[in-house]
Design goal:
This protein is an alpha/beta fold. About 35% of the residues lie in helices and about 15% in strands. The radius of gyration is 22 Å and the shape is globular.
């Protein structure tokens, strides 16, 4: 079986999956990059050094005819974030294609009903619904977005991003976390990631009298909101004590450096709203045994976190609820450990590059034989229609009480 994966560029979030695919398919697997990475993501450490050492990578600009042939002649095509023009001929020919999308309407589903946008999406997606074209939903709200114009009926599948999975000795990992409480936040400090919510929640916790342990928040990243964060750190939380005494700001680091800090952190805060298509830091923090407190807005959260079982989920933007969960975890080391162990097992058992690649190869081989057989749960299982406003309830309904 020949499988081609075409998208804009290869990132450190995609590389582990492509490596696993190449391990299984060898020369029958090809990755095509259509663009060069933008400077901001390079600055964030997303660039893959010496891409030429990966034998399966092709660059569209280097040999357009070869890449067009690879797109047309493979048995199965996975198409990620690139223009529809690259795959139009294949779709018109009715060849098996898996389209890989984050949310279309991150700023609100009402945008689906603008006449020009609705007609465009209908032509690009809904008009092809009887052909062997399937949707890989890189986020829990993707299926709901596409359902607005009746695209891919009964052909939408759970998917996501699969950053490097590190196999730890779980006992050593959890024992390596400090007896104090280290909290971590990472990412671009931009409006919709709401880094300030992490600081405000910590302030609320520190102002309460029953915090029983030393706590510290590390924030790694930079961006347009960094100056606002620095201003917040000047605030007093108790007489003579400022937030700057318990919060450390660090610039962007390489992904492997961030992972070393995650391994030592007790709690990870994911504060993004619904503009966060996936949020691979959630995978990484769970793999690192952190007790994750996450906004329901991030696309990965309803797929990965069951509230009270392997993490905690708060309503996007509700800083009081975030602070309440943070206070609970700060004061309960056994609960932190329980959630961290369950989080690690979630990634180890299902949401990792090896499992994703194994399932993808098996799923595609069946498609080539004319059989559509989704998994029962996890990657490549059928994607439920989760409306953004109901993501919080979905996470809580599928979890269990931590009391």
């Amino acid at each position: 079986m020949k499988l081609t994966f075409i998208t804009n560029y290869l990132t450190h979030h995609q590389l582990p999956f492509t490596e696993e695919m190449y391990r299984r398919l060898g020369s029958d697997f090809v990755f095509i990059a259509t663009n060069h990475m933008d400077e901001e993501r390079i600055r964030m450490g997303w660039a893959i050094e010496d891409q030429n050492r990966y034998p399966y990578i092709r660059f569209y600009d280097d040999d357009m005819q070869l890449c067009e042939n690879l797109v047309m002649d493979c048995d199965v095509l996975i198409c990620g974030g690139t223009h529809e023009l690259y795959i139009r001929r294949r779709i018109e020919a009715g060849k098996i294609t898996l389209r890989y999308f984050e949310r279309l309407y991150k700023k609100g589903q009402w945008r689906a009903f603008t006449p020009r946008g609705y007609i465009k999406k209908w032509k690009e997606h809904t008009a092809q619904r009887k052909k062997p074209i399937y949707l890989l939903c890189a986020g829990a709200y993707v299926a709901s977005d596409f359902h607005l114009f009746r695209a891919y009926p009964e052909k939408m599948l759970k998917w996501g991003y699969f950053p490097p999975f590190i196999q730890y000795d779980l006992w050593e990992l959890m024992e390596g976390k400090k007896r104090s409480c280290d909290i971590l936040w990472t990412g671009r400090m931009i409006d919709w990631k709401h880094a300030e919510d992490a600081v405000e929640a910590l302030k609320l916790v520190l102002e309460r009298k029953d915090v029983k342990i030393d706590i510290h928040l590390t924030m790694i990243g930079d961006g347009e909101c960094a100056s606002r964060i620095k201003g917040m750190l000047k605030k007093e939380v108790t007489a003579g004590k400022r937030l700057s005494d318990v919060v450390t700001l660090q610039p962007f680091m390489r992904p492997d450096e961030v992972r070393r800090i995650m391994e030592k952190s007790d709690i990870y805060l994911m504060t993004s709203d619904y503009e966060e298509g996936w949020g691979a830091v959630v995978n990484e923090a769970m793999n690192s045994g952190c007790a994750v407190i996450a906004s329901a807005g991030a696309g990965s959260v309803p797929y990965l976190i069951r509230h009270g079982e392997n993490g905690m989920v708060y309503r996007s933007g509700d800083v009081e609820e975030l602070a309440g969960y943070l206070e609970r975890l700060v004061n309960d080391a056994s609960l932190r450990k329980k959630l961290g162990i369950a989080a690690y097992k979630t990634i180890a058992d299902q949401w990792n590059p090896s499992v994703a690649a194994e399932r993808m190869v098996g799923f595609c081989k069946l498609l080539v034989q004319g059989e559509y057989r989704p998994e029962s749960e996890g990657p490549l299982s059928s994607a439920e229609l989760i409306e953004p406003k109901k993501g919080y309830e979905y996470c809580h309904r599928n979890g269990r009480s931590y009391d």
